[in-house]
């Protein structure tokens, strides 16, 4: 068996390993020793889930275990012989043996012994430790009074002394400053900082360093990474097309929250219910984006209800994991197998979120509701622009005698036009047609154009029409059915089309080509939600549709120009018809264009909306006020006579809208009347037979009373951080412990429930949880407490004995060593080479990524564009997070896709990581710039340069062997690149950062081998 | 010189001596460690490379690391006699219509244009046809009997017809997710919740890889023939299993494996020297602090280098005879499905455990006749060629070939296409211990519901694991306090298809 596998097996077994469990003769504790055995082996059939309970026997409660059944008692406290459970677990008869052989579970001799002794000692049950509120315990007595700095240390030392171990000596200062830097700000210390700290003789040198780092703005960036994993923050929706969604202001909120040391209770309330706070600030609303971080779909054919059910379950799973550290998600289809959560708890918990305004299926990629998040400067400008629009609107709508008389004239013209029948359209003579995506377009004898050949999802037709007409006032588009089309209707897709844009350009003789503004459009048929106005709204994803998939009939629309085109000989019109909706291949299959020179053009039977025709046909005296208003409204909105004023207003609106578009947005929580929540039997979303439930916290824990009012998200948030909640503080400090000691006090970070691990230091965990609450949920205080302990300050090497007896460092007789997280691997290389951008916040950044990496994405297809300049060198926390294709560097180093809550990133060690560090242009560029700095700033000699490089990357000097090897490599590669100058030229050009041309390329390339080697060292990416 | 070392270097006194020792003294010392050296020679490629780097490259820990890091699987003793050693899953993504490929329903032709009987569709989940009139839509291709076994298949796939006697058709598949993305996730991981391992990861976790120089799980993707639905990297993700079991996507454009190529201007020698130096320095550190993570790091660099040298050889098909290229219908190297099939065979020859080839051209909501013709032209010949090629090389016996997608398509019309359908669909398997020339299970007369010998995705997974000698109930991983498995709490092995 390989060493890796031994490692893995040991870690499996460790929960009941000798370091934690009862010694041979000591008292057996239910929670520490017995619950894990029962939970693992028995509760599946004899536990909380009443639906799968076998033989109606439950062993998770004393009532279940002690009650006589048909003459036998499962467990009789103190009497082994009268305990059927014991007979069953030692039975030789496979029919009697428990757990039954087909369960693939067997009890070890040690486990049987523990159960035996537990029964003998009285079979005392305890509630699961994590469900009992934590209490402060007095520090245990210790022999070594000299060791230890704060209240953490006695607990660690007592355990060590109990195991006849001694703590490791304090790490040296170089190690300490590196450790603190990685742990608190996620960056390596600068050489000057290292030397200053090494030389600082003051007794509080260490604490000063801690305080400096805690106050650094990089602290928030480092801490946010973990929180963003938990709440599954990403920049894309995750399902199917995995489209972009703007929610990054939430990421910035988290960074700021850590930096300002927002209390954790406030941090919680703002995320879960920030929008419900009285007079919620922009920041608090941004925080409430927490509720919108789940995956969403825009896949055609997705059922709204099914996806609402998915989001519902996702929120319960995530919120349960993030705050409570339990697997509430397991109760979606049935009562929890191991913990007392019922299926009903799952749905009452989810019901807290039933007031959120949301959809299951988001068509056309409209992810909502969202809000704008202007900064201060942007807010001021926005107010000004809004004021201008308001002023012009007022002007536009105000009584105006000039306009009123103009309207009278206009009305007469309209009335005259209405009487004129039939109406003439001149079929356009088409000179040329072009289809952007290669659809074949062929002119037909009737003047129409017919499509064939390729049938792309999106298509744009450009039609060139020479004409000598004058005063051209409108364009008519006829969509014509064809027997060759789907349903013999109007398109090759399914008979329907979506016309998303119409543009007209004109080139008159001797005049430059210009755009023709379309002032309005009318159609003889409009599909619901797809009126003709959407074809001229300037948006690429909305358009006119005509139900062609269900009704095969010719359709037509007229587009009326703002001002008639003068035209005349040698006039060329260009008409552009766009089909760019999400509906693939919905392009008009056959069409004909014609032009009008009438002053008020109209379609047969439709010059104006029907309603207006009716009003116009009434004598003025008989018109109702509403009718008059409508007419005036229409006149002002569309008549040429009002063009100038309208233009002013529309310019002001455009200016405002354009500015608005640049404002950052974020998804946000918006509360509406709560939707009905039902228990969904077996998690089947199509089953509506379940009981209706109201919001409630898990039934077996003390919680808010919902008997006289419906509880809200605010109640949930407050309960999560209330003193009566036994889980939240424990889950948080346990995860914090892992960050600073490498492994949680209870190892399973995402489950401190029944299947979780009995903590190695339960009293310490509880004291920390109580301290966290009593400090006012002060996060920085807890960090400081941990990193200023003597336990934290130990060296990480340990000794051979320790490596054998405690390979996973559960006793904390030393510090832990571990590879730094993905973002830090990146930040470290950029920091060492001085490329790292100090810029904080803002839209996510796009570092280099292999071309074609998004080739398997669609709707839309996309090619990644790496950022240029400063944005290329941002910290990893700002990297664009594409859920379905996470940046391969981050993925290689175990960053999660953030589709689900991740409490604990694995720390893998793979060949792909080596390939990233060796070949990813980010790291090659960092090595190159690092090499330039080595040559420019490292001193005159090779020795000095290497020392400079080591101090920068590793905070220490190289030893003689390292020096000999690296300088040997330098010499060797200087030779290689002298012989191949072209190769040197190539490697020094990797990356956007300008190359230091004053350095000899051969020398730079040779030093790059040194800097690459250093950036690839295990030590470089490890926190000791 | 004033030299500072952090604790982790200082603490190892002997190591200190080693570092300052004369270089010849080191070599002498190593010779006394012949046992280690012999292992080192196998494990550490950089060992004999350069006299400059040699002394430290041979440090014992590295050697130990390099020879011990190979993952041999969590299963010590297989639960059954294994029939398959590897899988090639030809994954027809987008939802291939069973009614135009493997499931003959003449009754649909009879009812063409007539309303679909409500008894079939009432209370069933419907995707894009929600709220629309449901009418029967005739199969767009004739079916014919193929091979000695006389298996009925669509005439649109004559090449697959030609291997009828080697394949086992499952006509009664059913699944639970009706939209592409979650349906893919379900087919690959047995659940629609993200973050769970896919089957390729499970199998590599269970059995390990027999391949030293390549990943144990490789994914290839081609497209064309219909609306190309997106495919997420979640489909080959290891979920909560360690990331080493993740599938590696070989890209058809650019570097086949991300970051596999040296940076421009870095020759293989330069790269090798950098790796050797880094590994030697890592070895010194390991000597000082004896950390298995360092040993692993060293061996991962060696593995990375091996991948760098073996991938080009894998991709280079100049040695393939023209007859083989013609059989697949490819000149290779163009990222087509046919080229990927050929590559799959080469990966199988190199003992890659799980090879998954997606073809994304099967989403035929409209124009299904034309769509199927187009996609058939891309996949039919090469799918059959792969089976034939494996057979002629004697590899089909222990290579399981699977051909199918995430769901099927409705018997009802969507224009001149079909909508997504989950209650009944088909796939086929060949080799790897599966009976050839047979079919299993049936849908109803209109191809709507699987009715006879139903095979759920969980059953399919259980059967696949069984062919590898694994009891699907025993391949588990503890995550969030629960023992997870590929088949959740379900799955029955379809014994009837086992050879």
Number of strands of chain B: 17
- The low-pLDDT segments of chain B are 10-68
Largest sheet of chain A: 7 strands, antiparallel
Average pLDDT score of chain A: 91
Helix-and-strand structural type of chain A? alpha+beta
Instruction: Please report the number of helical segments of chain B.
Output: 17
Largest sheet of chain B: 9 strands, mixed
How large a portion of the residues of chain A is in β-strands, by DSSP E?
A: 5-15%
Number of strands of chain A: 18
* Unreliably modeled segments of chain A: 1-19
Q: How many individual helices of chain A?
A: 35
Largest interface, C-beta within 8 A: A-B, 136 and 117 residues
- Please give the domain count of chain B: 2
Report the mean per-residue pLDDT of chain B as an integer: 86
CATH architecture heading of the largest domain in chain B: 3-Layer(aba) Sandwich
Structural class of chain B: alpha/beta
Multimeric status of the protein: heterodimer
Residues in helix, % of chain A: 25-40%
Could you tell me the CATH topology label of the largest domain in chain B.
Alkaline Phosphatase, subunit A
Distance between the termini of chain A: 28 Å
Query: Overall 3D geometry of chain B?
Result: globular
